[in-house]
Amino acid sequence: MSLGIYKGIVKPITSGLGITYRRLKHKKVTVSYPEEMREQFPRTRWRHFLTRYESGLERCIGCSLCAGACPARCINVVAAENTDEARYSPGERYAVRYEINMIRCIFCGYCQDACPTGAIVLRKNFELADYHREDFIYTKDRLLEEYPGQSDEPYTSNRKEWAEARADEKRR
């Protein structure tokens, strides 16, 4: 066998088969996805949520810093003044309209970093699929959904608990 055939054909094939053989010896891990969720990496950022204070007031003060920091320009914030009769946030202003176009979002997390009150957070819920384009525009009502489990804990519960939490929110 000539040296050219060995370097060009035989060596790549044997090295590829060697990698495959070594990989076959590893333990197989299977996750039953709809019932179980795979643990996400610690710095994973997926679904956006607007948070509230313990008193129930919204954290968002309508400053639009998140919209200014967004490189994809997918956030739209319209602010209004708080009154003593209708108080939505502890500051002078609040967000009347807060929308995120999830089709345009690149999940960079700059909105979370820019927010001075910690109102917008990206959490580990990665189930973002939908059937209609209109459903990818997350409005304030959808963003203020209560996050399952503790308020700032990462999403580690299974799918059934998440579905129950969503059903409870819709019944209210």
In short:
With 172 residues, the chain is an alpha+beta fold.
Walk me through what this model shows.
- The protein contains five helices and five strands.
- The protein is an alpha+beta fold.
- The chain folds into two domains: 1-30; 39-171, Alpha-Beta Plaits (2-Layer Sandwich).
- The chain is elongated, with a radius of gyration of 23 Å.
- The protein starts with a helix and ends with a helix.
**Could you tell me the number of beta strands?**
5
CATH class of the largest domain: Alpha Beta
CATH topology value of the largest domain: Alpha-Beta Plaits
CA-based shape: elongated
Strand and helix layout:
Layout: H1 3-24, E1 47-50, H2 65-69, E2 75-81, E3 93-101, H3 110-114, E4 120-123, E5 137-138, H4 140-143, H5 159-171
Antiparallel strand pairs: 1-4, 2-3, 3-5
Name a few traits of the molecule:
single chain; 172 residues; alpha+beta; Alpha-Beta Plaits; 2 domains; three-stranded antiparallel beta sheet; two-stranded antiparallel ribbon; 5 helices; 5 strands; 28% helix
